[in-house]
Amino acid sequence: MFVKVLIVDDHDDINNGVLEILSALGIKNIQQSQYCDDAQLKIKRAIFDKQPFDLLITDLSFKKDHREVRLKNGDDLIAALRIDYPELPIIVYSMIDLLQKVRVLVSKHNVNAYVCKGRKGSVELSQAIKNVYNNEQFLSTQVARALSPKTNIEIDDFDIELVKQLSLGQLQNEISDYFKANNISPSSVSSIEKRLNKLRIQFKADNATHLVAKMKDLGLI
Question: Is the predicted pLDDT of residue 49 greater than 70, yes or no?
Fold first, then answer.
């Protein structure tokens, strides 16, 4: 079983619950952090001291307070860690149950498990820890469809690039010109408009600005 684990969550009650789960599995060397910046420093220091963590359990959402931070959420932390420590096992333990969010974290950042907080959260987290220790993936039941090729929330690189250009302040005709110049298809204004309308419906966004905000929150752009 894992020997040294870091929990990153800004809620004491959640931390205490995770502590109980880890203790029940016989894990004694457990550290905690309520800030993602601190968590990254702890991991770096542990590596420097040649006593690395062998599992990270992190939330995604962290409330903003008086302290200025560079890594604002779990997404930022995971992305930063994957650059320097691609092999570090990571379990996400979060209230967020959006399939697209899970798909990005698993496919892009190689998250080893995604557990949804809730009635079965403790049981599933315990199972996830066992699975990850045995080099097996784990996804909570409500997000298990995230990796299915048939999931209806799937978006592709075209959609991401489209909204990225939108976030840069580009108008639809400017995006069309950009796509044509970079051989991205479809590139017509009508096709772009149709795709944006579809994305607004899919993400339940009121307008283009709302769509950009939602996709940024999901870490898609």
Answer: yes
How far does Cα 200 stand from its chain's mean position? 21
Q: In what order do the strands lie in the sheet with 29-33?
A: 29-33, 4-8, 55-58, 90-94, 113-116, 138-139
Q: How far apart are CA 205 and CA 216, in angstroms?
A: 12
Amino acid (1-letter code) at residue 183: N
Between strands 29-33 and 4-8, the pairing is: parallel
Question: For residue 216, what pLDDT is reported?
Answer: 80
129: left (phi over 0), alpha (psi -120 to 50) or beta: alpha
Angle formed by the axes of helices 189-202 and 157-167, nearest 10°: 100
- Domain 4-147 matching CATH 3.40.1550.10: the answer reads no
Domain ranges of the chain: 4-147, 157-217
Residue 97 pLDDT greater than 60, yes or no: yes
**Does the model's pTM come out above 0.90?**
no
